[in-house]
């Protein structure tokens, strides 16, 4: 997927600013193929996927980055997960009858909040929350980074049901420019130029062309692309663990109610895992063995 799904970093060599461009096609198509989303929802979900892809490139950790937006409106949930291995999955919950063809983020997700969660495999979980008060996801993320991280950031996010794209600019600690007034003027310059980028240009042009159009008078260093891909983390084993957590009595009751076959569906990818009576017996027999071994040690 390197050719269609990737992030690419660049830096301004004469200014304390870094940037990231993201392109998602195949992974975005995988997500949309799993559910028949209305167009405004697929657009919103694509923008959140692009945001996650951009953000995973700005943090160094081994684990999972989760963007979860919740609201009281027609779209109560948007969720994107992106691992440090750069594997993504995403889902949306929506009430189609309440969504107009031209619905915007405020229309679909009133009184919403966006949680940004980092779950490292080792170490402490971190979560930040921002209101979905802006006109789009990019504005909300800028508010979050400005308030919570004290890190000036500029986002552009667009999706059209075929491709999801994003641009991130972030101001770095002072190295190239020490004077604060000059630093702010430099930051204002690069973000003002970025604001001239249209949705059509971001969605339709390659990175080199975009950067030339915006910054042909600046000195930039463009790094190699880093691939992204769609992958769901569901599995038979994880579904079995979920059943274990219910307890044997409840699972056996459920087995009787469902005519001898429990079907566990993954909400992200629609994969179905079936468990019959012999599978349930095996699951809880293994749980008993594991418990005894744990007690011994």
Task: Briefly summarize what is shown.
It is built from 10 helices and 13 strands. By secondary structure, it is an alpha+beta fold.
Uncertain residue segments: 289-297
Radius of gyration: 22 Å
Shape verdict: elongated
Strand fraction? 25-35%
List the helices and strands and how they pair.
Elements: E1 6-12, E2 17-24, H1 26-33, H2 39-56, E3 63-70, E4 77-83, E5 87-93, H3 105-108, E6 113-120, E7 126-131, H4 137-149, E8 153-159, E9 164-171, H5 180-194, H6 199-204, H7 207-215, E10 220-227, E11 229-230, H8 236-246, H9 248-257, E12 261-265, E13 272-276, H10 277-296
Parallel strand pairs: 5-11
Antiparallel strand pairs: 1-2, 1-10, 2-9, 3-4, 3-6, 4-5, 6-7, 8-9, 12-13
Helix pairs in contact: 8-10
What does it look like?
By secondary structure, the protein is α+β, with helices and mostly antiparallel strands. Helices cover 38% and strands 29% of the residues. It contains 10 helices and 13 strands. It has helices at 26-33, 39-56, 105-108, 137-149, 180-194, 199-204, 207-215, 236-246, 248-257, 277-296, and strands spanning 6-12, 17-24, 63-70, 77-83, 87-93, 113-120, 126-131, 153-159, 164-171, 220-227, 229-230, 261-265, 272-276. The strands form 3 sheets. Strands 7-6-3-4-5-11 form a 6-stranded mixed beta sheet, covered by helices on one side. The protein has a 5-stranded antiparallel beta sheet with strand order 8-9-2-1-10. A two-stranded antiparallel sheet has the order 12-13. α8 (236-246) packs across α10. The longest helix is centred in the last third of the chain and has 20 residues, at 277-296. The chain is elongated.
